[in-house]
Amino acid sequence: MLPVSRLTRMRPALAAGTALLAGFLASATMAQAQPAAIDYSDVQADPALWRVSDADSDVYIFGTFHILPDTLDWQTDTLMEAVDSAQTLYLEADVHSPEAQAQMQALIPQYGLNPQGVTLSSMLDEETRALLAEVAPSVGAAPAALDPLRPWLAQLMLSVAKIQQMGFNPAAGTEMQLIARVNGTDIEFGYFETAAEQIGFLAGIPEEVQVRGLAETLHELEDLPQEVDDMVRAWATGDVEALDEYVNGDLREDEPEVYEAVIVQRNRNWIPQIEAVLEGEGTVFIAVGAGHLPGDEGVIELLRDQGYEVVRQ
Predict the structure, then answer these.
(1) Mean pLDDT for all residues in the chain
(2) Which of 122, 130, 148, 222 sits most deeply, having the most CB atoms within 10 A of its CB?
(3) Which of 73, 78, 50 shows the shortest CA–CA distance to 63?
(4) Is the confidence at residue 174, as pLDDT, over 70?
C-alpha cells in the first residue's frame, strides 16, 4: 500500500467530501507563487466507473476529484460515452450556479466566522500561533486576515491555496468539466444535498477537532503537494484501494467522528436517493466525491448490501 501521512482531515473536502468548499475557496486565489507545471503525461487514465441497472434504467456512478491540474487528461472514451448517454446528471449539490454562489457568500459568514470577540489566534497555543505566522504568508495569506475565521475554514483556505501553487485549478475539476460538457444539451440536473448542508458538515465538526486539524495542517503543509499528487494519480488510474487509504484511511482511525459526519452518514443518506433513481427509467450519471465510493461503508458496498449488482466498467 502507498504511504499515508496524517493530512487526511482535509482530504475529504478536496477529493471526496464537499465539492462546495473546495471549488468555492479555490476560485478566490490567495497563493502568490507562480504555479508549477506538473507533468501527468505518464498517467494512463482509467478512473473508476461503476454501473447498476434494472429492467428500465441504467445508473453510472463515478467518483470525482474537485480540483485538478489542467495537464491531466482523465476523460476516457468509456467515461464520456456514459456521460453522453445520460438524461440526468446527479451531483453532490448545486454549487456552481449564480444562485448557489450567492447562497455560499451568505453562508460563509454564518458558519465560517468566529463569534464577535473570538479570534482564531486565541484558540491556538503559542507554538501553533507562531507556526501560523510563518506558514500563512508562504501561500499568500496574511495571518491577520485569517484571524476572524473558524479553524475549519482557515485550514481549508490554507490547504487549497497550497494546492493552487501546484497549478491546480477548480475549473479543471471533474464537476466543472462535466457541467461544461453537458451545458447546452437536454440533460437535466439532480442533486443529493444543498449548499447549506455541505457547509454544515464541516462547520459541525467539534471545535477541538477543528483546532487539532489546523495545527496538523500547519505542521505538514509542505508535504501536501506530494500527498495530493499521490491522490490524483491513484484516482486517475482507478486504484480504488489506494485512493480509499489516502482519503479515508487515517480519518477512520484517528477522527471517527469526522469520518462519520463527512463521509459515512452522507453515504447512507444517498442510498435511498439512488434507489429512487433506479425506480425511474432511463440513464443517469452520478458524480460524487471519489472517497465516498470505496470501502465497506462506501456507496458501492452499501448498494450491494441492498442487493444491487454494481459492476465496475
Answers:
(1) 86
(2) 148
(3) 50
(4) yes
Q: Which of 203, 243, 204 is nearest to 227 (CA)?
A: 243
The full DSSP string for 249-288 is IHHHHH-HHHHIIIIIHHHHHHHHHHHHHHHS-EEEEEEE
Name the phi and psi angles at 81, rounded to 5.
Answer: -65, -40
State the DSSP H helix or E strand holding residue 51, giving kind and residue range, or none if neither: strand 49-54
Strand partners, 61: 50, 286
CA geometry: angle at 128 spanning 125 and 132, to 5°?
135
Q: Give the pLDDT mean for 101-130.
A: 91
The residue assigned the cell 464541516 is 202
Q: Residues 23-35: what's their mean pLDDT?
A: 51
Contact 166, 228 (CB under 8 A): yes
What's the average model confidence in pLDDT over 39-65?
94
The Cα–Cα gap between 186 and 84 comes to 11
Most confident range, picked from 98-102, 203-207, 256-260: 203-207
Torsional sign, CA 22, 25, 27, 33: negative
**Are 256 and 54 a contacting pair, CB within 8 Å?**
no
Helix, strand, coil shares of the chain, percent, nearest 5, are 55, 15, 30
- Kindly report the pTM of this predicted structure: 0.87
- C-beta of residue 159 within 8 angstroms of C-beta of residue 59: no
What does the block give as the cell for 28? Answer: 478566490
Question: How far apart are the C-alpha atoms of 90 and 51, rounded to whole Å?
Answer: 14
pLDDT in tens, 218-241: 998 888 888 888 999 999 999 999
Residue type, 128: T
DSSP state of 113: B
Q: What is d(CA 271, CA 53) in angstroms, rounded to the nearest whole number?
A: 15
Return the pLDDT at 30: 54
Q: Is residue 22 pLDDT above 60, yes or no?
A: no
